[in-house]
Amino acid sequence: MTLYENFLWWVDGSPQAMTVDQGRVVWRGPATDAPLEVGRRIDLEGGTLYPAFIDAHCHILPTGLDLQKLHLGPCSTPGDVLDAVRARHEALEPGAWLHAVHYDQTKFPDGAHLHRDALDAISAERPILLRHVNGHASVANSAALAAARIDETVEDPPGGTFVRDESGRLTGVLLERAHEFVTAAAPEPTLDEMVEAILAAGREMAAVGIGTATDMMTGRWNLARELEAYRLASEQGCPIRLRLFLQWGTVLGPRGIEPSELAGHMGAMDAERCKVVGLKIFADGAIGSATAAIYGRFLNDPDDGRAESGQLIYSPDRFHAMVRAADEAGWRLAVHSIGDRSTDLVLDSFATTADPRRHRIEHAMLLSDAQIERMAAIGCHCTMQPEFLMKFGHAYRRQLGQERTARLKRAESMRRAGIPLSFSSDRPIVSGDPLDGIRTACSRPDGFDPAENVSYDFAVRAYSEIGAIANDDAGFVGRLEAGEVADYRLEGSSG
Ligand SMILES: [Zn+2]
User: Fold this and answer.
1) 266 and 347 in one domain?
2) What is the CATH number of the domain that holds 116?
């Protein structure tokens, strides 16, 4: 038994002590009541003890894969970008794709995209793909286009653009579906690369105090390989607990995994370190790309007289059938829903399930008072990503205008209504330090209604104990109560 001593408890600042046996909290209480007979003592040097953060909605494997890519965040001129790409090209083995992330031409003096000719000058043989920081665009060189079988005769896909220059030649700039099409032509990560990536993501997340993270779309490449990679990473000492939501179609779709194979993967996991929690469904798109299903119109919509906009991914009948199939098979659901119109559909569907409290809505960025009341009555969980307000405010205003943007992410109203609301990052699209999320939730940036600020106390709980509820981990992790695992973080110690 180990005694942790000389720390303050985060809730009330009182001096406390905690005993831990085999990773579990045995007792925590006033320092003056600490047992005298212990095997080992750990001095926390006056720091404040908190439960470790729980990031209940992020993308673990993609975070790790991005860490292996060239990071162009510091580059503010085309010359900076090309120098960084050239250096990486010279370091890479022949034939491998050169992937870069956080490319952002809006930082360039003239704001113009790179042309593929500039990338071809570095290498015409190696595929080079620079992904835009917004995740919806990229610039490819000729080898990357060729690998995706794109030539000058290509036509734009629905919802995407292969950008051309004045002479009509492809520039290599790829928007939306065109970007996704070329990205999909890159080789899938191998099992070893996946394990390495998950371990790297785990190290990065542990370094900012995260103890548990939830991957919100496992099965993007190959479900069986990803499940194996998560299990292997946990066995190889991944410093965070891994929680997984699998894409609905990879389990219940026509080409889904065999149930016995899935059961084999799940049974081989040590559930304390790594477990499958449920299934993920997308109900709509995003605000920045005007694809969230909303009541009313996006500012840039052509005026066709309709009173609604954006896209439901599935027809209501199809969506209800998907929810029913998952619920009847005993799965918990996490449904991506950003627009208010989409969220009505999700609530309609959850309301018909046996126990809606098992299910989660991801994002729910636009909500009316009536919807908040209804969500509370239904009892489903909701996860929210406060950091988005810092990073995407300009994109929201462009699509929704100032007034509707100010009322996005109504965390305080939801908390007051009693909705189980957890906070998370959705990394890698944001940097994902929970302290940034907490700061933003407590003090929303200019232009966002300050009445929706939450207290620091609530924000910390939303990033720890309420996240545990979202992951079906209540009573196991998140509060440092007796019987729970001793995942903690320390702030402000002198050591
Ligand atoms: Zn996500």
Assistant:
1) yes
2) 3.10.310.70
Range of the domain at 41: 2-49
Domain CATH code at residue 232: 3.20.20.140
Residue 427 alpha carbon to ligand 1 centre in Å: 7
Verify that 320 and 267 share a domain, yes or no: yes
- CA 333–ligand 1 middle distance (angstroms): 14
Q: 270: CA distance to ligand 1 center in Å?
A: 25
Rounded to the nearest angstrom, the distance between the alpha carbon of 328 and the centre of ligand 1 is: 25
The structural domain count of the chain equals 3
Q: How far is the CA of 435 from the centre of ligand 1 (A)?
A: 19
Shared domain for 122 and 29, answered yes or no, is no
Interval between CA 238 and ligand 1 midpoint (Å): 21
Task: Measure 428 CA to ligand 1 centroid, in angstroms.
Answer: 9
- The answer to the question of residue 490 being in a domain is no
In a domain, 491, yes or no: no
CA pseudo-torsion sign 283, 287, 291, 297: positive
Does residue 64 fall inside a structural domain?
no
Give residue 300's pLDDT: 84
In sequence order, which residues have a C-beta less than 8 Å from that of residue 434 and are 6 or more positions away? 53, 55, 208, 209, 210, 423, 425, 463
Helices (H), 4-75: 60-67
- One-letter-per-residue 3-state SS of 189-258: CCHHHHHHHHHHHHHHHHCCCEEEEEEEEECCCCHHHHHHHHHHHHHCCCCCEEEEEEEHHHHHCCCCCC
Please give the pLDDT value at position 374.
98
For residue 159, the CA-to-ligand 1 centroid distance in Å is 21
- The pLDDT of residue 320: 98
Q: Ligand 1 mean position to 273 CA, how many Å?
A: 21
Residues 43 and 136 occupy one common structural domain: no
pLDDT tens figures, 99-148: 999 999 988 999 899 999 999 999 999 999 999 987 889 999 999 999 99
Would you say residue 104 lies in a domain? Answer: yes
Say how many Å lie between the CA of residue 488 and the centre of ligand 1: 25
Place of tokens 């929704």: 400
Q: How far is the CA of 217 from the centre of ligand 1 (A)?
A: 7
d(CA 326, CA 213): 23
Domain co-membership, 314 together with 433: yes
Residues of the chain below pLDDT 70? 494-495
Compute the distance from residue 426 Cα to the ligand 1 centre, in Å: 5
How many angstroms separate the alpha carbon of residue 429 from the centre of ligand 1? 8
